[in-house]
Design brief:
The chain is mainly β. It has one domain: Immunoglobulin-like. Helices cover 0% and strands 52% of the residues. The protein is built from no helices and nine strands. The strands form three sheets. The protein has a five-stranded mixed sheet, with no helix packed on it. The protein has a two-stranded antiparallel sheet with strand order 1-3. Strand 6 and strand 7 form a beta hairpin. The radius of gyration is 13 Å and the shape is globular. The model has no long low-confidence stretch (mean pLDDT 92).
């Protein structure tokens, strides 16, 4: 199982890169959570194909750095990955 995570995305003004997605192969279970700089959870998904669009409570989030935490399990059920890091939301 492998997971790749970009370090920036640019939602909003053009049709490119409007959603922050993780990418991977061999994944059976997946959870991704985003936090703002104060530690408030602003987005969560249990589906690798559903990403964050840069909004919270239907409002556009400001440009800046956000934190993500990913937990995933491989299709064989034995390998679990915990991955966290920072991403830049660029407007």
């Amino acid at each position: 199982m492998e997971i790749w995570v970009p370090n920036a995305f640019t939602p909003g003004n053009d049709p490119l890169n409007n959603e922050f997605l993780a990418y991977g192969s061999g994944i059976a279970e997946f959870n991704m959570i985003f936090f703002d700089r104060w530690g408030e959870k602003i987005f969560e998904t249990d589906t690798i194909n559903k990403g964050w669009d840069g909004t919270y409570k239907d409002k556009t989030c400001p440009e800046g750095v956000y934190v993500y935490n990913i937990k995933a399990r491989g299709i064989d059920g034995s390998k679990q990955v915990n991955k966290s890091g920072h991403l830049s939301l660029i407007r």
